[in-house]
Amino acid sequence: MAARRSPFMPTYLEAILLSIYPTTLVVGSLFAVLDPVARAAPYNTTTQSHYANTAPSYFAKKSNVFNIFFVKQGWAWVTFSYLFFLFTHPSAGPVGSLAATPKRIRGLLRYGIVTLWWIFVTQWFFGPPIIDRGFLLTGGQCDLLELADEGKLEMDNTRQFVTGVACKAIGGKWKGGHDISGHVFLLVLGSMFIFEEVLHVVTNSTRSKEERTILMSDGAVKSAEVEAERVTPEVSGQWTLGAKIMLGVAALSLYMLLMTAAYFHTWFEKLTGLLVAMSGIFVVYFLPRAVPALRQLIGMPGV
Ligand SMILES: CCCCCCCCCCCCCCCC(=O)SCCNC(=O)CCNC(=O)[C@H](O)C(C)(C)COP(=O)(O)O
Ligand SMILES: Nc1ncnc2c1ncn2[C@@H]1O[C@H](COP(=O)(O)O)[C@@H](OP(=O)(O)O)[C@H]1O
User: What stretches pass through the bilayer (predicted)?
Assistant: First the structure.
């Protein structure tokens, strides 16, 4: 009998999904280099964006409606679509009831950990979020020179504005250090979370054989199916409205990721955004396959 795949190895479908992200970033970045319109448009290297009045496309403007209402509220979209899915999909519990079934609780825990990672990286990490701490640690600071020149500000310690939000709020420029792309981070984390949670609907509805392997406490490597609570493929594979909305949110996220890659940021800022997002996905969706205690706590989607 052939040896089973390592629990850390993605399944075939997961491998395709994981490869979509670097591919999207490379395609978007190449577009920026090759498209004559994008090349000709002036680019501000401090803000890593085009100027609004000479932007090469609607999507190159920060004020574009998808940025304002979708990405800037990105975690709210992920949250509402997932909660709706979790409480209306028959594989997780009785439809039409808010009963706290074990599968719903484990789903909420997975969401909670991914959300905590989003909070730590973009909102708050015992003070400024990780993105802002990384920026300051790599030598960045809030540049208030223009305001000081205009006499609107006393030039005291500019490092007191230790978050990007506080700096921009008073009219300063967040300048100098390494700025992990918050957009790339959020769009990758949110859409990969959705794909991982909805994958069992795809595989069950198409009856595809996608074996996720797990490490048992006795060291044996088995199929995740051995721990699955009995739900038929007909139930697990139902394309409910919640599942479709989730895929819609993930699809729009991928499109906005392409736009971010094409019109904003350096290659390195996009790469670090991708890696920081993927580290959260690894902890919630791959680590439990090799750590039985963690698997018992947060489970695996569809199991
Ligand atoms: C076993 C451990 C369990 C741990 C449980 C912890 C649970 C914590 C749950 C807390 C619930 C939070 C619910 C959150 C609901 C929302 O999503 S409301 C907020 C909506 N806001 C957003 O979506 C903002 C998204 N925007 C950003 O993150 C940033 O703007 C950006 C896109 C990263 C860009 O940054 P800029 O600086 O603006 O460029
Ligand atoms: N796809 C996109 N569409 C519009 N604006 C984007 C964008 N990707 C990044 N930006 C903008 O680029 C800046 C840096 O993004 P981030 O670091 O989150 O990736 C942010 O500007 P503002 O902070 O001025 O809104 C953000 O709005």
Answer: 12-34, 65-87, 108-126, 180-202, 245-265, 271-288
Whether ligand 1 lies within 6 angstroms of the CB of 122 is answered as yes
Beta bridge pairs of residue 143? 173
**Is there an atom of ligand 2 within 6 Å of 264 CB?**
yes
d(C-alpha 138, C-alpha 131), whole Å: 11
Which one of 67, 75, 84, 298 would you pick to mutate in the ligand 1 pocket, going by the greatest count of ligand atoms within 8 A of its CB? 75
Q: What is the pLDDT of residues 161-208, one digit of tens each?
A: 668 888 888 888 888 889 999 999 999 999 999 999 999 999 999 988
- Structure token pair of residue 31: 């577009």
| % the chain with pLDDT above 70 | 93
Residue 230 lies in a domain: yes
| Ligand 1 centre distance from Cα of residue 115 (Å) | 6
The amino acid at residue 294 is L
Which atom of ligand 1 lies at the shortest distance from residue 74's CA? 23
Q: Count of domains in the chain?
A: 1
Show the tokens assigned to 39.
Answer: 């090349």
Q: Whose CA is nearest to atom 21 of ligand 1?
A: 73
CA atoms within 13 A on the CB side of 106: 20
| ipTM here | 0.94
- What would the two tokens of residue 258 be? 């392409």
**251, part of any domain:** yes
Residue 187 lies in a domain: yes
